[in-house]
């Protein structure tokens, strides 16, 4: 009997432990493509599943993430391990940095059930806002943590920041923002045309802290159905705060 010919091997395909099928390199150009690892907008060189019916995509940076343990300043008691899916066979996890859901890669501590988005794990330690004279420094909790009957409000949106969540802060001015949604400066008077121009330039600005933060928020907005539940719960916890009279202060007690 004749020996069947071997199928030609796609030498450009590669394997990754996060996915069952081979991946191939491509240049991400289409809009609304999201990395299956960090769940950020897909830009630049990336990997996609060779099967046309599979929409698994990875940034090259996510493909290259080391699988060994990582030490992080936010969780110094234990190292964090990169997981390619939420822990304990769950469909989602909650990030301990920003309190938002994730369904892709996570840096995880099994001892403490501590989880970080890939995007949160590598955000810069300082950012600049055009409307503030000093750089903002990343904190892993609010400066009023542990003070009884005291909360911190974001200097940009005036909403409460939970004491255990990350934030950007200027100690000199007692000025602080949410770690993602309010950290990047955005001109409130910009029109839709200007926003479209910014999107066209986004690929070239992909390395800037502001664009990475905006990308993260856009990706998280696509998970609105899951986030809505968290927002409702947060609104319920903070409902009493809405009854306070103006003027509002950064600290409440």
Our estimate of the beta-strand percent is: 15-25%
Could you state the order of secondary-structure elements as H and E?
Answer: EEEEHEEEEEEHEEEEEEHHHE
Q: Biggest sheet: strands side by side, in what order?
A: 1-2-3-4
What share of residues is helical?
10-25%
Radius of gyration: 21 Å
Q: How many helical elements?
A: 5
In total, the number of strands is: 17
Outline the biggest β-sheet: 4 strands, antiparallel
What's the shape? globular
Protein structure class = alpha+beta
Mean pLDDT: 76
Please write out the topology:
Elements: E1 13-14, E2 23-28, E3 44-49, E4 57-59, H1 60-63, E5 69-72, E6 75-83, E7 93-94, E8 101-102, E9 106-109, E10 114-117, H2 118-121, E11 126-127, E12 136-139, E13 151-153, E14 160-161, E15 167-170, E16 175-178, H3 192-200, H4 209-221, H5 224-237, E17 251-252
Antiparallel strand pairs: 1-2, 2-3, 3-4, 5-6, 6-9, 7-8, 9-10, 11-12, 12-15, 13-14, 13-17, 15-16
Plain-language structure description:
With 253 residues, this protein is α+β, with helices and mostly antiparallel strands. Helix content is 17%, strand content 25%. It has helices at 60-63, 118-121, 192-200, 209-221, 224-237; strands spanning 13-14, 23-28, 44-49, 57-59, 69-72, 75-83, 93-94, 101-102, 106-109, 114-117, 126-127, 136-139, 151-153, 160-161, 167-170, 175-178, 251-252. It is globular and about 55 Å long. The termini are far apart. Mean pLDDT is 76; it is low at 6-11, 187-210, 216-233 and 239-253.
């Amino acid at each position: 009997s004749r020996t069947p010919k071997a199928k030609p091997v796609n030498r450009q395909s590669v394997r990754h432990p996060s996915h069952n099928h081979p991946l191939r390199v491509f240049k991400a150009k289409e809009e609304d493509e999201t990395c299956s690892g960090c769940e950020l907008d897909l830009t630049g060189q990336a990997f996609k599943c060779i099967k046309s019916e599979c929409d698994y995509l990875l940034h090259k940076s996510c493909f290259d993430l080391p699988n060994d343990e990582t030490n992080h300043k936010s969780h110094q008691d234990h190292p964090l391990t990169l997981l390619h899916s939420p822990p304990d066979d769950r469909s989602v996890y909650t990030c301990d940095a920003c309190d938002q859901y994730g369904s892709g890669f996570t840096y995880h501590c099994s001892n403490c059930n501590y989880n970080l988005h890939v995007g949160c794990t590598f955000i810069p330690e300082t950012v600049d806002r055009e409307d503030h004279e000093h750089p903002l420094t990343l904190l892993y909790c609010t400066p009023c943590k542990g003070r009884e009957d005291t909360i911190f409000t974001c200097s940009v949106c005036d909403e409460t920041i939970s004491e255990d969540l990350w934030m950007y802060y200027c100690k000199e001015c007692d000025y602080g923002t949410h770690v993602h949604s309010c950290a990047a400066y955005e001109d409130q008077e910009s029109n839709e045309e200007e926003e479209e121009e910014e999107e066209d330039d986004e690929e070239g600005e992909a390395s800037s802290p502001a664009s990475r933060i905006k990308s993260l928020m856009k990706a998280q907005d696509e998970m609105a159905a899951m986030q809505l539940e968290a927002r409702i719960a947060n609104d319920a916890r903070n409902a009493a705060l809405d009854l306070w009279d103006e003027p509002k202060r950064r600290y409440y007690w």
